[in-house]
Amino acid sequence: MTGNSAADQLAPSSQLFTLRMWPEDLGGGQIAWRGSVQHANSGEARYFRDWPTLETFVEERLAADLQGKDNDRVGASAPDP
To answer: How far apart are CA 41 and CA 60, in angstroms?
Structure first.
């Protein structure tokens, strides 16, 4: 059964990210990996050249989702002034 119960509101949502990677020839026999990541839920995308940039993007999107859920719960449970 689905509904707007407290359990449904607190259940974690899943997040989907699309990750694309490709090699870039730097010359002299050197290759660097480049990539892009897209958050499927929001459509927001970011290009990156290093793992910390990828990690930061994913963490920001996950935190934004949790923040939105916290705001929804607070608004739903806050008493009228």
So the answer is: 13
Q: What's the maximum distance between 2 C-alpha atoms anywhere in the chain?
A: 68
Rg (CA), the chain: 19
CA 35 to chain CA centroid, Å, is 16
Render pLDDT for 25-51 as a digit per residue (tens, 0 to 9): 999 999 999 999 999 989 999 999 999
The whole model's pTM is what?
Answer: 0.65
Dist. CA 35–CA 37, nearest whole Å: 7
Non-local CB neighbours of 57 within 8 Å, separated by 6+ positions: 37, 39, 46, 48
**What residue type is 1 in one-letter code?**
M
